[in-house]
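One-letter codes give the sequence; the fold follows as tokens. An example follows:
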Amino acid sequence: MTTTAEQASQKPRRQASKRVSQSVFDGSHLRVVLLVDVHDGAQQQFLEAYEQLCNQVASVPGHVSDQLCQSIENPSQWLITSEWESAPPFLAWVNSEEHVRMVEPLHSCVRDTRSLRFHVVRETGTAASAASAERRLQTSPRIGDGVIRHALTFTVKPGSEAQVAKILANYASPEPRVDETTRLCRTSLFMHGNRVVRAIEVRGDLLAALRHVARQPEVRAVEEAINPYLEQSRDLDDQESARMFFTRAALPAVHHVTADELAEGRRHALYYPARPGRGMRLAELLAHRDAEAAEDPGSPVLRSTIFQRDDVVVRLIDVRDGRDAEAALPGSGAKAGAKAGSEAGSEAALKDLLAQDAVRMELITDRRSPDA
């Protein structure tokens, strides 16, 4: 597993721009809250599995502490809280195969889980004040737009790309309304080679939206149709098989910046294959560049979301009409020597993190709900 130093810079930055509504690169401590619903009668089994997991997590770089709490009203409800030096080391661990193996003993005794992640913005109390002096807290809260951004990525068997693209482009849109507070806003699907990236935007509860989509007959039919072409096999009728597939396919959003909230543009996805162990650092560098570009009225990018998992980095951008997406594609092969000063240095640093040149992905479908 890569170390914290390899995943992100050792000098975390405070919030640099009010245009950045989401970022894991603040340098603030991270509080993770895991709500767990344990099967009746499995409390002791769950406690033993947790103690084994706790001993393993203690050695993970960036981990500070954790607590296990049991409800005083319902013994089947548990709460696990953990603190991390910052978000990048936690994300590197929770998205790793090591984490998948660590939590496997919990599956047989847990009915349901819900994970929440928070940056520490303020602390109170004597002990907290002393600790805060050693930490880097955000100077101000982020102002979001109420939209949660998430993506999934997976690969299909080489040679099946055309069939898969046809299947993914021609399905009926699912019902956008999930419940009174949650609805699907937009789904954008891209491919490059045999890699598929599906980005979704949700207003409300992401987990409820994902479960809603999985139950829709239109989506279910598409998922079944592409099953024979997947490099990683799955059985959607088997809860554990489906859970493992979507756990490995998760491509979390690590940064979002908006330069213009009103203007509409053309959507593109840019794929940045990172060198082994350098995905998070690559995402951080792209995030820094996007935050700076958002302050430039001449930038072609209206909005940018960076997704990262392991060595896969995807940058989803909305580009001003009439502007070429290639102008917003750093690391695509342009010679750094043709650039000046710090920009050339940034381009050179980007090249050092890339396993190969960044590329524009092919848009398969981009759908928005009527009132998104």
